[in-house]
Model the fold of this input.
Amino acid sequence: MTPNSSSANSAPSRRSFLASTAFAAVAVAGGAPLLTACGGSAETGEGATSGKSAKKLLPTYTPRNIVTPDIPSKNGSSAGFTGKVKLDELATAVPEKLGTGAKVKIMAPFWGTPPKQDCAYYTALNEATGVDVTWQNQDGNTYGEKIGAVLASSSIPDMLVVPGWELGGKVPSALVAKMLDLGPYLAGSEVKKYPNLAAIPSDAWQRGIFGGKLRGIPYPYSYVPNIAPFYRKDIFEEKGWEVPKSADEFLALAKEMTSKKAGVYGCDDMKWSSFNIFGSLGGSEKALGWKLDGDKLVYRVETDEYLEALEWTRKLYAAGVVHPDARAVSGDSSLRFTSGKVMMYNADITAWYGKTAEMVGSKTTPNFEMAAMDIFGHDGGDPKLYAGTPANMWAFIRKDAPKEVVENLLAASNYAAAPYGTREQMMVYYGVEGAHYTVKDGVPVKTERGNTEVLNAWSMLAGPASFIAHPDLPEVAKAQVEWQQRMGAFVTKPPFYGLTIVEPSRYANLSDQFEQLEDDFVRGNKKLSDVQQAISDWKSKGGDKLRDWYKKEILDKNGSAS
Amino acid sequence: MSVSLSPIARLRAPERPVWEEPPSRVGLTAKGVFLAVCCLGVLFPLWVVVVTSLSPRDVIESAGGLVIWPQGITFVNYQELLSGGQVSRAMLVSLGVTGFGTLFSMAVSILAAYGLSRPGSFGHRILLMALMATMFFSAGLIPTYLLVQTLGLTNTYLSLILPSAVSVFNILVLRSFFMNISPELTDSARIDGAGEVRILWTIIMPLSRAVIAVISLFYAVAYWSAWFNAMIYIDDQNKMPLQNVLIQLVQKNTGLPTGLSQRVNTGELSALGLQMAVMVLALVPVAIASPFVQKHFKKGMLTGAIKG
Amino acid sequence: MALQAERPPRPAGTRGGREPQQPRRFQGFRLSRRTRTAARLGSLTWRTRLRRDRTLILMTLPAVVLLLVFNYVPLLGNVVAFQDYNPYISTNGVTAIFNSPWVAFEQFEKMFNDSNFWGAFENTLVLFFIQLVLFFPVPIVLALVINSVIRPRVRALSQAILYLPHFFSWVLVVTVFQQMFGGAGLIAQILEDHGISGFDLMTNAGIFKYLVTSEMIWKDAGWGIIVFLAALASVSPDLYEASAMDGANRWRRMWHVTLPALRPVIALLLVLRVGDALTVGFEQLLLQRDAVGAGASEVLDTYVWNVGIQNGDFSYAAAVGLVKGVIGVCLVLAANKFAHLLGEQGVYKK
Done:
């Protein structure tokens, strides 16, 4: 099998890790946070735009307080809704159809089996928005290859949804070259026509600036770190274990928990959490891997924290407290967690709801309870966390689209961005009442038909400001938001927060080797000297030049976000 | 094997030709053990997969992975996969593409293999080289996509057949078998005035039933399990073949298939159980096709022709 | 075939050209020999040969056209190996070729100066030899064993069972192996119960290449027997009977009747396998890369994937692909020559 003919999805890389957790997130009705992943490079439109010059490009922010959240956003958290759904009290976010019946084609990634084009859900939404959408739902796991091919052809769909983790290689330059500048339709007060889009926070909109023009309609997300260390609260309580408060405590506890005879291990792979515990820059996106040390820019791999985090993770592996399947990157880590094979694991914050909901009514572990532990500083003090990205998926419109098509697409996005607690939001996330869902005791439950038709297509065209709502498990929603708020207090924004930076192509793949190296190092397959060698290679092969580029092109022009 | 190890007389299979000496006990035992070990080595994992696909979600949860001993049986995973129009619709597409594709590929390949099978025929070496070169150089995704698009094949079933219709490997295998047929037979027919097409149809093909069965199977399996072309060329969900519909469920280590995630989330189903059910479904066509192919492997089927 | 058997012999006819008329029965084989020799000596002009073989050439036409359109035309795209190609700078990927800068052999230099490339190259070759020695003979042995089974039921059943693993996906095969031989697998658990700790075959870089070869044997060896069975089916039982009458025992019959029947197929598959030496598995290796580290598991195809394709570096991927193709062609020519030396046909005749 040649690489060309094979599956992108089989690569157990960060990209797939992120993509998979993210789509699980989208699947969960309600908050649909997305993750950050590698940014990319381009030859055209290098650089970024922020500050004053960005202001001119951005839509004027006009929050809509249609429904007041039960827990308002604080420290960058999502807003939380913990109430029940009352159909007759739903507000209206789009009082009149903005669509004029134009035929549009939208290509978007899709995880799962897409419904038919003429299904009741798509038909109802076309009717409600007044836009005649034809969907091209493409397999999300191989989406990168598909957009690579489509962008190189001369027939691009009217609207293209692109997740951030597909921005590798030359895709950003393609978006700059082939996608429409939305400025004339949205900048400043133009956006008023689309009030739900105007309510998307400016942070998120700023991420939609590609090549100096506003091109992407963002899906907003909380910038609080999205990877949470989870533990089995039920078992902790039963055994009287204390939630660890330092790196040493974590290791000691994991050792205590591990019983190879019983096939139970302390934890799964904790690399992503270790970066947060040791205050290393996350590097989920390249530009977010830089910080200012005095007035010198430092990249994450150059920091002591980076090596310390990796050393600690390596210690966990060496101590034998990590499940062997995690070492071999095999199987499903969340299944190991819910089945009690590992006591602690890290995953996207949305897993809190996803796994809890999944385990409701479990016969084998009826008392299942999980929780995210607060990220601790490695020495037991406060953690030092870095902000993630405020948006990481965009909908683009092709450059030569006629005005009517553009306006209809914006109308569709405006509908999809309707805030929680509105009829439109219920329509997008649950479909038509009766046909696709019913409400029992204030909890919407999808019908068989809803399960097959109402999936993740429409919800990707844009989103409201980040929120979390689980009417069936309001206490989980509350805990998630509160965790984000507690962690948010420790978050610093790195200098290039919120920017979509297109690096020069000669540096594009410079840092790509580190992820593999990290995984090899923590598992004992590479030595510390290999990592150090790679770091000095990185500097000499262009890292230092890249640093100068960031300083000159981004920092001096736009200033720092931190 | 205990039965076959009893008296020598029982060892004599009725099908054994009279001239063949009866096997030694040691030989027979060794052979039996060898085959049994091989088959068990295959069957045990298969067993685990089947059991997991039939296990209720709670059993999978407590096993934390594949289930070895069944504790309760449910068909809910299969019901879930086969209900709804999607899978059956996609199965029709796959059957159609596999059927027409295999016929087309076989026609093209048999003609080419025969055309190249005569030593010393005009240009056969150059043609052979030209064919073989394609085995070693592959074009990138973008040029291939642009070509298919330029030909107007995107979003048509032809895009699932034409680009991958010819396998040079299969042509070479066919050709090698054709060349091993005694030239005596074809030459005499030629002298009788038979044209090439007639020789191919009346002499070569009947004599090559075994290899034709094998190569048809190769093509059919390739069409049936292909998904990459559909992923790249097909935009319309109704035209997606089965593999693309099912692949979502098995390909990932992490994450849930969203289409079913609502029911997985509500604890009705287990993602792993569903994935294993998909694996089992993928084996069904093979289990069905296998006897048809084996039918052509019977020894001595060629005697009549050669003697005649 | 009944048709063949029943057709009454006709008087020898001619089919034009210069082919001499020959009595039918005994000279047939010699006829074709002579024709070939004549062709080599050039006693037949190319026109005559073209006219004589035009039907044969016409028969290859559909395949040639398909390959021309769907393989050769897009292959032209490989010129981007000499460029720093950006498919997106023009209206489409083809016009982009004319607008991308030419960099001559820069991509190739980058490749040959990359130690990771050479690491992958070495792993590929080692893995190829291990596969050649440990994997390649297995289907042949299996086919011989199955072929020697007399009882039709046992035969059919064991064949059907052995085919099945081919249809498992690699993800599943690796998962099954992990659950058997992994650190928390079945065997590790049993050993743990007996006080032996630390069994884990899946994350041991030292035996990794043998591990993936065993996975490959498990998955594909059974499927591999099918071509050999087809070859065995075309052996006439009369040959066995005659050989037995001459006093040849079981082993001698296998040596003198069975193996000669398999030899052309074995030679063909061997030559093709050698030509494809640099392809040693992709998805399987990618899936298990993190378990043992890139040092032990990176092969050319995964290297191209990681360095070229995943990053959208089409030029680099094309360059590695070209090098791989050139090496493949050289290998297949060499292997074919070698087959000729051993008196085999190989893929094509001299």
About this structure: Chain C is about 70% helix and 0% strand.
